[in-house]
Design brief:
The protein is built from seven helices and seven strands. The protein is an alpha/beta fold.
Length: 220
């Protein structure tokens, strides 16, 4: 064997091992820096509160400072019916076990009634929510689904909604495993409970943005 062919063989081996080495380093780095998990936000202004806080102080902005793999489809004022249009926008490529979908919905539906809902009305509303979650599962069967419960604003004017909010949250908790491993419950009722957590009486404040982003990041 000539020196030329020997040199080519050795050089090829070095290239192959170098590529494998740097690929493993890259994969390890990706895994360790938290970017291996994709976070998708759906729902209402609890997850899209940029209109109510200073620039770069929203829930989404706080999450972006922790990981680049976060996408926000939530809309201010969204109801349960609006979740379907948000779902249509999310690419199928995110149907993997490393995707975490976080959903906040139901609050605007309750508020839009402008009265304290009775148990039967809350149950009908929740059944509509469950129907959406079933549709979500059809499209994203591999993703992890995380459902935020509702908070109760500290302003006394919302005291009349307490029974409705608490019943809604109980339904979320009680039905979390009704259809196999349906969803994980994210408790923001206990998280946001001080006046500093709210702006305009009901929207998540800058303080709440940080709390919510930290909870979502740790839950993913």
């Amino acid at each position: 064997m000539s020196y030329y062919y020997l040199f080519i063989m050795i050089f090829s081996i070095i290239v192959v091992f170098s590529c494998a080495y740097f690929k493993s380093i890259k994969e390890a780095f990706t895994s360790n820096n938290g970017n291996s998990n994709t976070i998708i936000l759906m729902g209402d202004s609890i997850l899209n509160n940029s209109k109510y806080v200073p620039t770069n102080k929203s829930v989404f902005a706080n999450l972006k400072s922790k990981t680049s793999n976060v996408f926000n489809y939530a809309k201010d004022g969204a109801t349960i019916d609006d979740l379907y249009s948000q779902l249509e926008q999310i690419p199928l490529e995110y149907n993997t076990d490393s995707t975490n979908i976080f959903i906040s919905a139901g609050g605007n539906d309750i508020l839009n009634k402008q009265i304290k809902l009775v148990d039967a009305s809350i149950k009908r509303l929740f059944d509509k929510y469950m129907a959406f979650l079933a549709a979500l599962r059809v499209k994203f069967g591999s993703a992890k689904i995380n459902i935020l419960n509702l908070y109760l604003p500290t302003n006394p004017r919302y005291k009349s909604y307490q029974q409705s909010v608490e019943q809604w949250n109980k339904l979320i908790k009680d039905n979390s495993t009704k259809i196999g491993e349906m969803y994980n419950v994210v408790d923001i009722y206990s998280l946001l409970n001080t006046p500093e957590d709210f702006v305009y009486d009901i929207e998540p404040s800058e303080t709440a943005s940080s709390k919510l982003a930290n909870l979502i990041y740790l839950t993913r």
